[in-house]
């Protein structure tokens, strides 16, 4: 058997070209740090896109995974398993929900939520009640259904015809939703903070208005908390920081701390529409994923950790604002908890990728939320010293790009 040298160049030879990964290959991680093949160290402010909430190689997660791996890996849904039952119980005890459906990703959790909303409406009000209202610039996944519910048409291009019965309103514009909602509406789906759409928080009054519209029209309110959930905003779930309770909530990303798992949470009454055989997944609720997610939930759902997220938010925002006072690069710094976005001023619109690349060269890994916004979603365990070091490195990167000047 021939051996292959594994480098970034191999990606271009053997992988489908739907990604353009960075020109380094991480090989090891510990807490908020990553090392590449050359042994270079980076501070990770991406957390795998808000996934590794407890950083890399967290001892509690490693322990849970290894212990479960010694017992049973996979059973399918012909059986239930102990980790799935424990995790479901803890999620229902910690949230509004009575029932949980496990799957493998955020897209699958949203797919389940949208199917359940339509099935519930069909069961109780008839087949005509099937329309879903979503929001411009929203993101709900990459299956054909979820990408259509998402409010970014570019992700549907070339994949038509797409599912029908979906409408989009401007985010934070309650009057626009009122103009769209009708007795045909079965659900409204909203991100408490739009992530891919630019890290834009929902106004509290807007969320209250959506709840009232759903109640008035017998529609279900779905919170997509794939990115905001599991402590990311400083509450276990972002809805807890509002006075609005959804009918369905979707969770993934941080729930597994890096192990693939998703969940859809709902009430007992709504869950009944998913009777035996109506929906399913081979790997969903597998013992390995649920064991790790239970360990994540135990670690994150502690008052001190969640309070620290709010404190670290203030430190990160203050550092970004101080950078902005010196360099005048950001039009706005916004977000909740440890999900932050810094929107570039007009002169630098479309060039977020340049700052990401420059930051990497300075030893700090950041994200973008489209071409105009730098996005920060560090592990929830990031220390004050690591925040300070990362922001100093980011400022060096910004100074370098500013010196080169904007692209024409």
From TrEMBL:
Domain of life: Bacteria
Keyword annotations from UniProtKB, A to Z: Amino-acid biosynthesis, Aminotransferase, Arginine biosynthesis, Cytoplasm, Pyridoxal phosphate, Transferase
Catalytic activity: N(2)-acetyl-L-ornithine + 2-oxoglutarate = N-acetyl-L-glutamate 5-semialdehyde + L-glutamate
Cofactor(s) needed: pyridoxal 5'-phosphate
GO molecular function, one term: transaminase activity
Residues carrying N6-(pyridoxal phosphate)lysine: 253
Pathway: Amino-acid biosynthesis; L-arginine biosynthesis; N(2)-acetyl-L-ornithine from L-glutamate: step 4/4
Residues of the signal peptide: none
EC top class, as a word: transferase
Compartments it resides in: Cytoplasm
Ligand binding (pyridoxal 5'-phosphate): 106-107, 139, 224-227, 282
Main localization, broad class: cytoplasm
Additional record remark: May also have succinyldiaminopimelate aminotransferase activity, thus carrying out the corresponding step in lysine biosynthesis.
Family the UniProt entry places it in: Belongs to the class-III pyridoxal-phosphate-dependent aminotransferase family. ArgD subfamily.
HAMAP family: ArgD_aminotrans_3
Subunit and interaction comment: Homodimer.
UniProt cross-references to NCBIfam families, sorted A to Z: arg_catab_astC (TIGR03246), argD (TIGR00707), PRK01278.1 (NF002325), PRK05093.1 (NF003468), PRK12381.1 (NF009047)
Protein's recorded name: Acetylornithine aminotransferase
Organism: Marinobacterium weihaiense
Gene that encodes it: argD
